[in-house]
Amino acid sequence: MDWEVILSDAVRSGIGPVAAAYALAAIGLNIHFGYTGLLNFGQVAFMLVGAYGVAVSVSTFGLSLWVGVLIGLACSVVLALLLGLPTLRLRAEYLAISTIAAGEILRLFYRSSWAEPVTGGVFGLQQFADEFYDINPVPRDRYGFWLIKYSSQDLWALLIAWGLVLLITVLVALLVHSPWGRVLRSIREDEDAARSLGKSVYSYKMQSLVLGGAIGSVGGMILAIDTQSVNPDSYDPVVTFFLYTLLVLGGAGRVLGPIVGAILFWMILTFFDSALRQAIGAGVIPQDVISAPEVGAVRLALVGLGLMLLMIFRPQGILGSRREMMLDVR
Amino acid sequence: MRVSRMLVPVFALLLMALAPASAMAQSNEVPRGPTFLDRALQVLVDGIQFGSIIAITAVGLSLVFGTTHLINFAHGELVTIGAVVAFFLNVAASGPGWHLIPAALVAIAAGALLGGLIERGIWRPLRKRGTGMINLFIITIGFSLLLRHVVLVFYGTRPQSYREYDIQQAIDLGPVGITPRDLTIVVLSVLVLLGVAFMLQKTRIGTAIRAVSANRDLAEASGIDVNRVVLVVWVLGGGLAALGGVFFGLTEIITWDMGFRLLLLMFAGIILGGLGSAYGAMVGSFVIGIVAQVSTLWFPIDLQNAWALLALIVVLLIRPQGILGQRERVG
Description:
The complex is a heterodimer of chains A (330) and B (331).
Chain A: H1 3-14, H2 17-36, H3 43-59, H4 65-87, H5 92-111, H6 116-119, E1 125-126, H7 130-134, E2 142-145, E3 148-151, H8 152-176, H9 179-189, H10 191-196, H11 201-227, E4 229-230, H12 237-250, H13 257-281, H14 295-313
Antiparallel strand pairs in A: 1-4, 2-3
Helix pairs in contact in A: 1-13, 2-3, 2-8, 2-11, 2-12, 2-13, 3-4, 3-5, 3-11, 4-11, 8-11, 9-11, 12-13, 12-14, 13-14
Chain B: H1 2-27, H2 36-68, H3 75-90, H4 100-129, H5 133-155, E1 171-173, E2 176-178, H6 180-202, H7 204-214, H8 216-221, H9 226-251, H10 258-273, H11 278-294, H12 304-318
Helix pairs in contact in B: 2-6, 2-7, 2-9, 2-10, 2-11, 3-4, 3-5, 3-9, 3-10, 4-9, 6-7, 6-9, 7-9, 10-11, 10-12, 11-12
Subcellular location (chain A): Cell membrane
Organism (chain A): Prauserella muralis
Pfam families (chain A): BPD_transp_2 (PF02653)
C-alpha cells in the first residue's frame, strides 16, 4: 500500500473543484437549514437547474456562456418561488418531502426522451464551457506541489471555484450578521415569536429559499463548467444527502461550516476509496470480502454510518454550538 | 373548502378532455391498435395494481409517522430487504432454493423482526435521549444510505427476478388483461389492507395505535403502554414492507434500490392521503399508482413517476392537509 498516493489523492479531492462546488451548494443549504431551519431536501434540484441553465443555453440555443449563467440563476429563483409558494406555509415535513420530490421530478423530466431535443436526455450535454476556458489568463504550464499537479485549465477552474466560495462566504457572513440574518435565526428558533414581533415569517422564509437556491445553482454551474458536461443522473437525491452530511460535519448555522465540511468530507471519502482500492490491490483485504467494484458501495455505506453517528453524538459538527442545533419540528 | 374540493374532478375532466386531442396527434404514426378507451381501462387496472403495492408498503410508514412523528427515510430499505431475503431463499445459488411462497413468508417474518429490532435498537434509545425530530429525520437518511449500500454489496447491481410466476399469460377480461400473478397480488393486497383496517378498528391494539396517533400524551396518561404500541407498529410496518417488496419484485424486478425508488411514491401517497392517517395512506397510494400508470396514456413511460410526484405537489397546493387529513393550523 502506497500511503503517499492515498494521502495525495485525499488532499487533491479535498481542494478540488468538486469540493468547491459542494461547498457552494452547502452554503446555500446552510442558509436554508442552518439559519432558517428550512428542511430543504431538494438542494440538488437547484444545482441541476443551474448546471442545465448554462449547458442548455450554450449547447442548444447557442447563447453566450455568461447569458447562460444568468439564465441558470433565473431558473433557480423561479424554482425557489414555485417550491416555496405551496410548502412554506406548511409544517416542516411537507417542505422536506415536496422538495425531494421536486428534485426527482426535475431529474426525471430532464432525462426523459421528451426533453431530449433540449437537454440531451440520458446522454446529457457536453463541451459548452469553451468560453470560460478561452479567457483563462493562467499561462500554459504544469502547476502544483507534491504529487498534486494541475494544468493551467484546471488551475483556472479551481481558482474561480474557490474564489466564488470565498466571495459568497463573505457575503453570507455579512448577511447573517445583519438584522435580516437575525430575523432568519429567530424564525429557526421560534417562528411564533418572530411572527408576534411583526415579522412576515413567510416572506423571510421565501427570501431565504431564493437566496440559498441561487447559491446552490452556482454550485451546479461550477460542477458543469469544470467537467464541461452535464448528465441528469449525476443530480440524484443522494447529492442532497451528501450536502447534509458535510454541512452537519462542518457545523450547520456557522459561516465556515460548509467550507470546512466540504473539504473534510471529500478528503475522508477519497481517503477511504483510495485506501480500500490499494488494500484490495495489495491483497491486504481479500477479493472475496470486498471486490474493487464494491468499493463505491462500501464508501456510501460509510457516509450513511458517518451521518448517523454525527447526528447522534455531535449534531453541531466541528464548528457549531450544541445549543443552536437543538432543532425540532413544531 | 367546497370550491377546492370541486377543483380535483374539474382537473381530472380537463385531462380527459385533452386526451382525444393528443391521441389524435399520435395516431398518425402509431398503427391502429386498441381504442383509447381500451387502453385507458388497461392502464387503470395497471394503476390499481401498482397502487396496491404502494399502499401495502406505505401503511407502515404512515403508522410510524402517526405514532412517533418520525419521517422514516429508511422505510424503503425494509421493502428492498424483504424482496432480497425472499430472493436469497428462492433463487440464489447459495440459498436453499425454496418455493417462493414459503420464502415470502420467511421474508415477511424477517422484515417484521428487522422493524422491531430497529425500533428497539435505534429509535427508542434516541427518543429517550430527547433527540430532536429533525435530527432523527436526518439520522434515518444516514441509516437508509447505510442499509441500501450494504444490500448493494451483498446483492450486487444486477436486476433479477424470482424463479416462480415470472412469465405468465394474461387472462383476457374483455378490453383489459391481467396475469393471474398480478390479479393474486391485487386481491392479496386488498385483503391485507382490509385486515389492517379491521385490526385498527376492532382490536385492542388497533384502538391503542389510533389513540397514540391521535394524542400521544393523552394515550399515555390513560394507561396505554406507548412504547409497546410503537413496537407493534414497527413490527407490523416491517412485515408489510417486506410483503410489498416481494410483490414489487414479482411484478417488476428485484434491484438493490427498488425500495428507495418506491419510497418517494409512498411519501407522495401518505401526504396525498393526509399525513399520519393509515386510511389516507391507502387512498393516497392508490391515487399515486393510478396517476403514474394513467399518465403513460399521454406521456412517455419514463416520466410516470414524475407525474405521480407532480400530483403530490398539485394536491398540496389545493388541499394541503391531504384527501383524508384533518385541517390544522400550520404556519
